[in-house]
Specification:
Strand content: 15-25%
Number of strands: 13
Helix content: 25-40%
Largest sheet: 6 strands, mixed
Number of domains: 3
Distance between the termini: 85 Å
Oligomer: single chain
Low-confidence stretches: 21-26, 458-465
Mean pLDDT: 84
Length: 465
């Protein structure tokens, strides 16, 4: 580890516990795991937390308890919070120590040039300061997951581009917030909701810390969340005709030309999330003998936004067991024929044995959808040119599976379990996106039922009305 004024740089070893045989998260300390290990006398990683020159020790034992990764990091001191005594730092990572150091030095020069070294006191805390502290505390206490914190921090970065979010919250006027929220109306309702929640969080925290007395983000005169004017092209599911068109394409194209064909077919036939499919372990999660697929975890992101294998599923109900039918079993068997051996036993991985990321799969699906012309709409790009786009995305495959289940009259409670939802109201949303032809046939069934039961009276002929 090297030190410059205000900068610390080094190469560090990260030890991440593997799951035990019962697929439960290990609760004991890392040191206790190492002390009870049969290889503790020969393992060179046992007590080390950083590397010299970033080298991996040769001839080290194969560890059954931990995943190891090596990262070069630089930490730059950028300020001080006088209310908590906390030193404010920014972190930079690189392929080696020199890359990380150069990033930190560039940031340091920027701070010195703009004189933006931060000294935070109770009275000058900004919206950004307040939200950052709340998210950090919630993450440390386990109230939010790493991926959730990353998502909220990304939203906070967008919010941080506004001038009023970086001045002391005591100087922020109601009109500043109203005008900003008004400017968000062209965005989607979900984007508006995420930003609005962070604004409410900042004013709530400022009230709690007695920084402000007038919180205009709560109460009967609160600043309301604006209604989106964004015209969304997103649907919950594909129509039956679109689904058949996509499946025909995937069935007929060779694996060499579309290496994601079995992954996409698996999503359509099981309803699992793409992040869940990308981390399937072909040894632990696939049970062909009993025709089971075990969903134990999902792909997530670390604090730097890098895709990693999560230790748990997206939600508590996300950990579940799926029963293979003949269709999904055949897809799994074909997938296993093309598996590439890799350190994490991933069923789906790239030729260089690394994990695919969700965006890669989504981009592939969009290219296919444009090629076979499903979900097509036109939109002006940034240069004013009309371009073709598609509303098809990986999550629509999950919605398509759920909608077909709804049309097949699978009970909502059963579908909730299959999809791994924690709230049945989320599951029920899929029941309103059924295919138009199915809706017509169901309407005809209702008409026949009313006629057979003579519900509208003896002389009421439904066919002649």
């Amino acid at each position: 580890m090297n030190k410059l004024k205000g900068i610390t740089v080094g190469t560090y070893l990260t030890k991440r516990p593997k799951s035990n045989k019962n697929n439960t998260k290990l609760k004991i300390k890392n040191s206790e795991i190492c002390n009870s290990c049969k290889n503790k006398l020969t393992c060179k990683y046992k007590d080390i937390s950083k590397f010299e020159n970033g080298k991996i020790f040769p001839n080290n034992v194969e560890c059954e308890k931990f995943y190891f990764s090596i990262t070069s990091k630089a930490m730059l001191t950028v300020g001080r919070d006088t209310t908590t005594g906390k030193t404010l730092r920014e972190h930079f990572t690189g392929g080696n120590e020199e890359e990380a150091l150069n990033q930190a030095l560039s940031r340091k020069l920027e701070i010195e040039k703009t004189n933006s070294y931060k000294v935070i006191t109770k009275s000058n805390k900004s919206i950004i300061d307040l939200v950052t502290n709340v998210l950090d505390e919630d993450y440390k206490l386990g109230k939010i997951k790493k991926a959730t914190r990353k998502r909220k921090m990304d939203t906070l970065k967008k919010l941080g581009k506004e001038k009023f979010t970086n001045i002391p919250i005591t100087k922020v006027k109601r009109d500043d917030v109203v005008k900003y929220l008004e400017s968000l109306k062209p965005y989607s309702q979900s984007t508006i909701k995420q930003i609005y929640e962070l604004l409410c969080m900042s004013f709530g925290q400022a009230t709690y810390e007695n920084i402000i007395t007038d919180n205009f983000m709560t109460g009967w005169k609160r600043v309301e969340k604006p209604k989106s004017e964004y015209k969304s092209h997103h649907r919950k599911s594909l129509t039956i005709a679109e689904q058949q068109k996509l499946i025909d394409y995937l069935n007929n194209i060779s694996y060499n030309k579309c290496k994601h064909k079995y992954l996409l077919l698996l999503l359509l036939s099981t309803g699992m999330r793409v992040g869940e499919a990308l981390v399937l372990d072909y040894e632990k999660d696939i049970d062909l003998k009993n025709k089971k697929i075990y969903i134990r975890r999902t792909q997530t992101k670390d604090l730097n936004g890098k895709a990693i294998i999560g230790e748990t599923a997206k939600t508590e109900n996300g950990q579940r067991t799926l029963n293979m039918n003949n269709i999904s079993e055949q897809i799994i068997r074909e997938s296993l024929k093309h598996k590439i051996k890799n350190k994490d036993n991933l069923l789906f991985c790239s030729d260089d044995r690394t994990m695919y990321v969700e965006n890669t799969i989504n981009s592939c699906l969009k290219r296919i959808a444009l090629k076979i012309e499903i979900g097509i709409y036109e939109e002006k790009n940034s240069k004013g040119k009309i371009v073709k786009k598609t509303d098809v995305h990986t999550h629509i495959l999950r919605g398509t599976f759920a909608t077909r289940c709804a049309e097949a009259k699978i009970a909502p409670a059963v579908l909730k379990k299959i999809l791994g939802h924690s709230d049945i109201t989320v599951t029920m949303q899929y029941y309103v996106d059924v295919d138009n032809e199915f809706e017509k046939s169901e309407n005809n069934n209702m008409e026949k039922y009313l006629k057979d039961k003579n519900i509208f009276g003896i002389n009421f002929d439904l066919e002649n009305t």
